[in-house]
Amino acid sequence: MDRVNPVYATMATTIFEEMSGLARETGAINLGQGFPDTAEPEELLRAAADAVLAGPNQYPPSAGLPVLREAVAGWYGRFQSLDITAGDVLITSGATEAIAAALLAIVSAGDEVILLEPMYDAYRPLVERAGGVARAVTMRPPDWRLPIGEVAAAIGPRTRAIVLNNPNNPTGRVFSRPELAALAELCVAHDLIAICDEVWEHIVFDGARHVPMIALPGMAERAVKIGSAGKIFGLTGWKVGFVVAAPRLLQPIARAHQFLTFTTPPNLQIAVAHGLGLDDDFFARSRIGLERSRNYLSALLTAAGFAVLPGEGTYFLTVDLATSGMREDDAALARRLVREAGVASIPLSPFYMSDAAPRGLLRLCFAKPDDILAEAAGRLGQWLAGRSA
To answer: Which tens digits make up the pLDDT trace of 96-116?
Structure first.
């Protein structure tokens, strides 16, 4: 084992794979891993099927098919008022590949990268694989605000970049324009690159609007914007991602991308381009449906006796175990709930790299049909009532 890369040598199976595996093993309802169990958009499925039959099915350009790059630029112009062209867009095999390519292109050995925790668990190993040093800054429940003062204190002479996930997984927080503007000011003042994981940008609720960092003053030349067709359309297995950046950043990211996956299946690119051209009502219906599901699960859990933290976006709600009357470790309890209640969740503690991790928060995915949400909440409620009896 001393002959392999130490970043991966002792790495455990991800919590997502573990909990989904337990759900399959036990037949539990899987509210853990973030994928929807709702109807998939047939129009996109047909577009992908037609494209694979009609072709082309050989290597597309590494940067992506022009039709998709143009569609991405157009979609961001429609919904986020970004003035970009197809030349500002790179297509990747999923957003995680885009994050990897960005970090490999931007981070050199010894560079420090600030990560805001709780965070998507791919960030730290990808930083370290690029030769960088991860520095954690902790956000705290229940409001999960950006701790700008702590971010400023974490910036040192070797700091090269900050990774921002907005809307945030796992907390569901949608950061405000003033918070993002303060972060942008730090990036400009310290010449930092912001790698912006914005895959949940379409899934924001309560009338909120997603604010892209790349649109803020001083950020056009120093932000890397990453999006995901899988999240926009609820087709997580398609793994079609987007990178938007100025040429000085996009060019080296594209070079890193060509030696990771090189390209992405052409039929999926054609189908996503078709989907991005659908009318505004298609996207509004998707968002409204998810907001209704969030409200439904939150109401069911609250009625069952669980304390639910606010969720402003993504597919996820967070349950506060301590406020719900449980003083148990979240990871241990999540494993118990699969077997005892028949519901899989995700503990938040694996989303931290520092010792600041709270040990009493569980993430639940609400992108499911009503009957599944009702059954899951009923099982959890029965388990909680039995525990209190």
So the answer is: 999 999 999 999 999 999 999
